Amino acid sequence: MQKIETGTEHLIFEKLDGVAVLTMNRPEARNAMSGEMNEAMRNVLAEVELDPTVRCVVLTGAGKGFCAGGDVKGMASSGDGTVGENTIDAAIHRQRVHQRATAGKLFKMPKPTIAALPGAAAGAGLSYALACDLRIMSSSAIMTTAFAKVGFSGDYGGSYFMTQLIGSAKARELYFLSDRVTADDALNLGLTNWVCDPDELMEKTMEIAQKLSNGPAVAYRYMKENLNRAIGGEIDECLDLEATHHIHCGQTEDHRNATKAFVEKKEPVFKGK
Question: Which of 13, 81, 98, 149 is buried most, with the most CB atoms less than 10 Å from its CB?
Fold first, then answer.
């Protein structure tokens, strides 16, 4: 893999064959967020969204955890979990901007995003995982909202993403009670797409990521926009968007090559144009 500098050891950024791998790297703190990690995450996601050589993004955590969310120990020592030296209004605006640039970016960027969970995804860390298009969990990993346990209501879009994935009633249960959700339960609920042995997590993740990286990037872009619009869009609006995107894809080199390969019973080679 090609390792790219992020300005901090708290986030590792690597690229391999069209796949960007972002690793949250504070294993001693279960990869809890830090100011350095958050700033680097924001910058790297902005970069990979516009990088034509990146066609799939993987988000994971170092060691045995995915991300514990906010650094609760740091909050406890400072006595202030949200505002710090800012005014309340400035703190709210700062967090709104950052959430859109991270969780919002994972959800909306026109490329497939995958969260690979080697261990616990909690609080805002769970929100990051749910923001991705696809999730794969180690059989030893768990999910928990965790917010209620520290007197928080929740951030980074977790309430939105979870409600879309499993419905309002179950999302309310998991938010209010902060129960631990095992990998198998997450699979049954629809919170994850795959569960695998811990030793196979990154191999399986990269297998999926490479398949997506080698796929029809233009079609994926418009599939994702269609699916995101379907969440809140009106039926005629969604039909019109599908028609526009479908016709557009039909004019791509990828479509022409794929239809020819289909007729010739060959595997298509997609170029992303």
Answer: 13
